[in-house]
Amino acid sequence: MSASSDIDVDVLKSRLEEVEARIVAACERAGRRRDEVTLIAVSKTHPIEAIEALAELGVRDFGESYVQEWQEKAAELEESVRWHFIGGLQSNKARFVAGEVALIHSVDRKSLVKALARRSDSTVDVLLQVNISGEESKGGVEPADLNDFYANVVARPELRVRGVMGMAPYADDPEEARPYFRRLRELFEGLVAYAQEHAPERAGDLREISMGMSGDFEVAIEEGATLIRVGSALFGERNYDA
Ligand SMILES: *Cc1c(COP(=O)(O)O)cnc(C)c1O
Q1: So what's the pLDDT on residue 38?
Q2: Which residues form the domain of 226?
Q3: Is residue 3 assigned to a domain?
Q4: What's the whole-number mean pLDDT along residues 36-64?
Q5: Among 83, 86, 127, 228, which is best to mutate for testing ligand 1, by the most ligand atoms less than 8 A from CB?
Q6: Is 167 in contact with 133 (CB distance < 8 Å)?
Q7: What pTM does this model have?
Q8: Helix axes 67-76, 48-56, angle to 10 degrees
């Protein structure tokens, strides 16, 4: 992690203002209210001081991808923040995260579902990650398997499925992400219809579509994102080996 003294609060503040203005503009274009979209600041690899600075500027939701890094930050942070676990989660680490974060975005296998359910003392809120890009390197259930996977997860009362998460393939032009985001929105709507038929008492839990990153969050908002996961546009570039 980079030297913590490097953080510049004024720079963070102006980046946050710019991201916020872009969110507002995208909501306006889409005819949506600003409060329909939650900004998650993705703080992986960035120091705790940067998280504190954004928290003081009013950001409440933070995303982390690595269990150990998140644990270290959560233990040290004095501000109360809502943590989102957005990275690939190994089943043997599920117990560290279940019940400890507000939302796990990356549930995509039965073994993980089982591990999360076994560990929970309270309800675990999750999103089902869908592999909309077709890239093998990205996790997620296949779109065709989403409804069956959902049926497996809702069979466990310990877990509450709040929606879906997905990632578009990397592209320089954000417009290229649009069909992927539209697809995820359609899969979400199909899932709601499936739930209304097969698990009507749980269908109302389905409210969130987590999609959009620094390069494409405006398109994601236009296509219906309720949670956007923004890292480098807020914190600057990540440096994995500093
Ligand atoms: C790192 C990460 C992000 C943030 O990426 P940026 O391009 O820096 O905004 C969003 N979602 C996931 C799942 C990530 O791993």
Answers
A1: 98
A2: 9-235
A3: no
A4: 97
A5: 86
A6: yes
A7: 0.96
A8: 60
